[in-house]
Amino acid sequence: MASSATGLRMLKPPLPAAPASRFNSRSKFPKTRFLRVACDYSCLEVRDVSYQPPGTQLSLLKSINFSLREKSFGLIFGQSGSGKTTLLQLLAGITKPTSGSIYIQKYDSDGKPNQSSLPLVPERVGIVFQFPERYFVADNVLDEVTFGWPRQKGDYQLKEDLALRLQRAINWVGLSGISLDKDPHSLSGGYKRRLALAIQLVHIPDLLILDEPLAGLDWKARADVVKLLKHLKKELSVLVVSHDLRELASLVDRSWRMEIGGNLKEESLPL
Ligand SMILES: Nc1ncnc2c1ncn2[C@@H]1O[C@H](COP(=O)(O)OP(=O)(O)OP(=O)(O)O)[C@@H](O)[C@H]1O
């Protein structure tokens, strides 16, 4: 689904809410970088997050609490309809929690918070929904990755920065052997997922979120994506919702079960 008026694009039909943006206000990203201060590690912290869709009495998520350390891999599993995707949409800023907070906290090596927490802003989150290739809009790889980027003349510094980020993202996901002129729809299943990841990685997110990253892929492409995620978790915090527990188990640092009714509990994988 695309909105040509805004240049924004949905990766999945969302819950009724503000539109998600692939680019968000990312044309501004040089101004929205966080100040990097010496610290030992940072964590995504989700505190007492609850969600009721506006105008309803439905309580989809109930006081969710969890944290995920940087450069680690978290997996949320649970029955269909329990609220996993709803939670991911809150983390990505597509919908707003009814209450609670989502932020990044930096810590010293002794585990003490070393500065005040920063809200997790949508510009710092990359999200790849289920079957992202269904929402490709361009007829070549370059336009697909740069969809929504500023097109006006001038600002060469920004363009150079974007070009460098593009190159890095393409290399990161192992797409450098693919021509940027190629039609994204003609790529194999695994390469389409790589492309969907590259689109998000251009912005070097603090948190990379994936909803069912292995769904609909053949065994070879699944193994490929698992390998790529293993590589990415060395650089980023990765949070995944999946039913494919066995294939992802070797990557998992922390896991949680979402129970019907929207309660999240830390639990090891039921393998
Ligand atoms: N805006 C809304 N209004 C009412 N109900 C909603 C709304 N959004 C989601 N729901 C309901 O909330 C529940 C949780 O949906 P969600 O998509 O988050 O589940 P899920 O755990 O991701 O499921 P699956 O594993 O099948 O993807 C579902 O029963 C869904 O129908």
Automatic annotation (TrEMBL):
<dbReference type="InterPro" id="IPR003439">
    <property type="entry name" value="ABC_transporter-like_ATP-bd"/>
</dbReference>
<dbReference type="GO" id="GO:0016887">
    <property type="term" value="F:ATP hydrolysis activity"/>
</dbReference>
<keyword id="KW-0547">Nucleotide-binding</keyword>
<keyword id="KW-0813">Transport</keyword>
<dbReference type="GO" id="GO:0042626">
    <property type="term" value="F:ATPase-coupled transmembrane transporter activity"/>
</dbReference>
<dbReference type="InterPro" id="IPR050095">
    <property type="entry name" value="ECF_ABC_transporter_ATP-bd"/>
</dbReference>
<dbReference type="Pfam" id="PF00005">
    <property type="entry name" value="ABC_tran"/>
</dbReference>
<feature type="domain" description="ABC transporter">
    <location>
        <begin position="44"/>
        <end position="271"/>
    </location>
</feature>
<dbReference type="InterPro" id="IPR027417">
    <property type="entry name" value="P-loop_NTPase"/>
</dbReference>
<dbReference type="GO" id="GO:0005524">
    <property type="term" value="F:ATP binding"/>
</dbReference>
<dbReference type="InterPro" id="IPR003593">
    <property type="entry name" value="AAA+_ATPase"/>
</dbReference>
<keyword id="KW-0067">ATP-binding</keyword>
<dbReference type="GO" id="GO:0009941">
    <property type="term" value="C:chloroplast envelope"/>
</dbReference>
<dbReference type="GO" id="GO:0016020">
    <property type="term" value="C:membrane"/>
</dbReference>
<dbReference type="InterPro" id="IPR015856">
    <property type="entry name" value="ABC_transpr_CbiO/EcfA_su"/>
</dbReference>
<protein>
    <recommendedName>
        <fullName>ABC transporter domain-containing protein</fullName>
    </recommendedName>
</protein>
